[in-house]
Write a structure and sequence with these properties.
By secondary structure, the protein is of the alpha/beta class. It has helices at 34-41, 84-87, 103-120, 130-133, 147-152, 171-177, 186-197, 207-219; strands at 5-6, 12-14, 23-28, 52-54, 60-62, 68-70, 88-93, 127-129. The longest helix has 18 residues, at 103-120.
């Protein structure tokens, strides 16, 4: 089991309806450094927290025990789940949202995710970004995050090239079927999907978007 430094945050509660974690949500801190983020995440007045924080050099802190509900996700939805905090474990990565992620940091993340998914018997599809649940409001872990590296370790779903989808399903239906059920606009949900699965493409919605979304939706059943 990966070792961490315990640094208790007062900002947590009980998971509602005695839920167990079914998701792991990745964030970036968008702060000056890990120490500043740690201070805020443990500030009772800030009313925010997370289960884990990983510094650029790979240092790992645990702030909230996994059986409790940390306050990291805010308002959002994923496959119809609205109380994301009760359903998830939160991991903050020390990153400004614009810079590439450091290799030691990602190596620690891979080890931590491996532990979490094994411990709670979760599949790769459980690992998502803050932008997936709250598109338009949040964009972390951002365009510089390498989802493909996680998928190579079996820690996130792969983006597979696809060419077919049911002609009777429109973009909104396909986005919802692939997990993007938040109240955000269709445009923001599409941008969140693309940031993770098709970041190189900036044009209007097309058949490739729909085919990949259909592939994601059907592979998660």
């Amino acid at each position: 089991m990966i070792q961490s430094i315990w640094h208790s945050s007062p900002n947590f509660g009980h998971r509602r309806d005695k839920q167990h974690p079914s998701l792991v949500v990745l964030h970036y801190t968008a702060m000056d450094n890990a120490d500043t983020a740690l201070e805020r995440l443990c500030d009772e007045n800030a009313q925010v927290s997370t289960h884990y924080l990983i510094a650029e050099n790979g240092q790992l802190w645990q702030l909230v025990k996994e059986q409790f509900r940390a306050w990291h996700a805010g308002k959002g939805s994923w496959y119809g789940v609205e109380d994301i905090n009760s359903a998830s474990i939160g991991i903050e990565l020390d990153n400004d949202g614009k810079s590439p992620y450091c290799s030691p940091q990602i190596e620690t993340l891979i080890r931590l995710l491996t532990d979490i998914l094994d411990r709670w018997e979760l599949p790769p599809k459980s690992v998502i970004g803050h932008s997936d649940i709250a598109p338009g409001r949040k964009w972390d872990p951002g365009p510089k995050f390498d989802w493909n590296r996680l998928s190579l370790h079996g820690l996130a779903i792969k983006t597979v090239k696809a060419s077919a989808y049911p002609s009777d399903q429109n973009l909104d239906e396909l986005l919802k079927a692939a997990g993007y059920t938040s109240a955000a606009s269709e445009e923001h949900r599409l941008l969140a999907f693309r940031q993770r699965h098709r970041s190189y493409f900036k044009g209007p919605p097309d058949e490739v978007d729909k085919a990949i979304l259909y592939q994601i939706a059907t592979s998660q059943k």
